[in-house]
Design goal:
The chain is of the alpha/beta class. It has one domain: 3-Layer(aba) Sandwich (Rossmann fold), CATH 3.40.50. It is 30% helix and 14% strand. A 10-stranded mixed beta sheet has the order 4-1-2-5-3-6-7-8-9-10, sandwiched between helices. It is globular and about 55 Å long. Belongs to the pectinacetylesterase family. One of its GO terms (biological process) is cell wall organization. Its EC number is 3.1.1.-. It is an enzyme of class 3 (hydrolase).
């Protein structure tokens, strides 16, 4: 009985310690609406103004700027975009009035040693196409606005007016669809910033690959092509790609990332949990649900499924070879079953964070940004890395896939 009570107290202490750490590592930042963007037609899917959360820099970081673009998938047709119109991914009216900043956005030295005192901005995502769309016409029935590219420009202009025009250092970053945003808009962001500024780009879980699924079909290629067509994205995709390939393919970083001139750092899991669930084994390719349990928890995967996932990793790494040994392009490719690792304190910078070459993601990114050393590392195959934080999904909230 006494042993049971001690165990319960120890569990309680652990929970309290984790809650305290989470509280210390997070700060809450209010929302800012870019009201003047509406007159420019730079609006969310429902016509509401774009928004961001801005935690001002201080001390020596007062002229340094870090923009983190929010993720949240994409909508590929009128039906799926309409479903977003009534939630935070399509309307700023539905966004939380304040959100927590942690990880790369944290404002305390012990949790974010290299960027804590920068101007840190979380740009909210409400256009459904990684800020690439621009269709002038608005359907009178659906009243959907496909204006993501205008939103991107309006947000940057608003921040330039608030002091970013004096930037000495600047980073565009993002997670998932926001990570793709930072790749697609990397050179555009550089062009909008002062020429004297040291500008670089970071993509977290944004390197989506054009791979066949378990049925042998490229469903993701069709999906991305539909996004580009629906949002009129072609004119806002990298010209170095669209001059050679169909616009839908130019939504995949592997076809244009080597042509990006601005320095860029890629953070990705080789077994990206979103890509495993939605590119390798989407619901449409697995109608009997053989992959359902495996996708929720990699520990549930059969040896055959793990073999298929190792094949996906091989294809993912092959897509990365276009980067070569570029001195300006860094990477941290771990072997975790994860998706997005910069915004959570646990995976960004903590005593138990994922390590690659004995280095945390935060340290690798900072060393690369400040030119302390080039970080260009790829992990050994799963399950070789004991420091990984592998995702376990709640089956009640499982996304059936594209």
């Amino acid at each position: 009985m006494e042993g049971t009570r001690i165990g319960q107290w120890l569990n309680l202490l652990v929970v309290c310690a984790l809650l305290l750490l989470k509280t210390e590592a997070s700060s809450y930042v209010p929302i800012t609406y870019v009201q003047n963007a509406v007159a420019k037609g730079a609006v969310c899917l429902d016509g509401s103004p774009p928004a961001y959360h801005f935690d001002k820099g201080f001390g020596v970081g007062i002229n340094n700027w870090l923009l983190q673009f929010e993720g949240g998938g994409w909508c590929n047709n009128v039906t799926t975009c309409l479903s977003r119109k009534y939630n935070r991914l399509g309307s700023s009216k539905q966004m939380a009035k304040q959100i927590a900043f942690s990880g790369i956005l944290g404002n305390k030295h012990q949790f974010n040693p290299d960027f804590y005192n920068w101007n840190r901005i979380k740009v909210r995502y409400c256009d459904g196409a990684s800020f690439t769309g621009d269709v002038e016409a608005v359907n009178p029935v659906t009243k959907l606005h496909f204006r993501g590219a205008r939103v991107f420009t309006a947000v940057i202009e608003d921040l330039l007016a608030k002091g970013m025009k004096n930037a000495r250092k600047a980073i565009i970053s993002g997670c998932s669809a926001g990570g793709l945003t930072s790749i697609l808009h990397c050179d555009r962001f550089r062009a909008l910033l002062p020429t004297r500024a040291n500008v670089k780009c970071i993509s977290d879980a944004g390197f989506f690959i054009n791979a066949r699924d378990v049925s042998g079909t490229r469903h993701i290629e069709q999906f991305f092509s539909q996004i580009v067509a629906t949002h009129g994205s072609a004119r806002n995709l990298p010209p170095s790609c669209t001059s050679r390939l169909s616009p839908g393919l130019c939504f995949f970083p592997q076809y244009f990332v080597s042509q990006i001139s601005t320095p860029i750092f890629l953070i990705n899991a080789a077994y990206d949990s979103w890509q495993i669930k939605n590119i390798l084994a989407p619901g449409v390719a697995d109608p009997r649900g053989h992959w359902h349990s495996c996708k929720l928890d990699i520990n549930n995967c059969s040896s055959n499924q793990l073999g298929t996932m190792q094949g996906f990793r091989t294809e993912f790494l092959r897509a990365l070879t276009v980067l070569g040994n570029s001195q300006s392009k860094g990477m941290f490719i771990d072997s975790c079953y994860a998706h997005c690792q910069t915004e959570m304190q646990e995976t960004w910078f903590r005593s138990d964070s994922p390590l690659l070459a004995k280095t945390t993601i935060a340290k690798a990114v900072a060393d690369w940004f400040y030119d302390r050393r080039l970080f260009h590392k790829i992990d050994c195959p799963y399950p070789c890395n004991p420091s990984c934080h592998n995702r376990i999904f709640d089956p009640r909230h499982d996304n059936p896939g594209i």
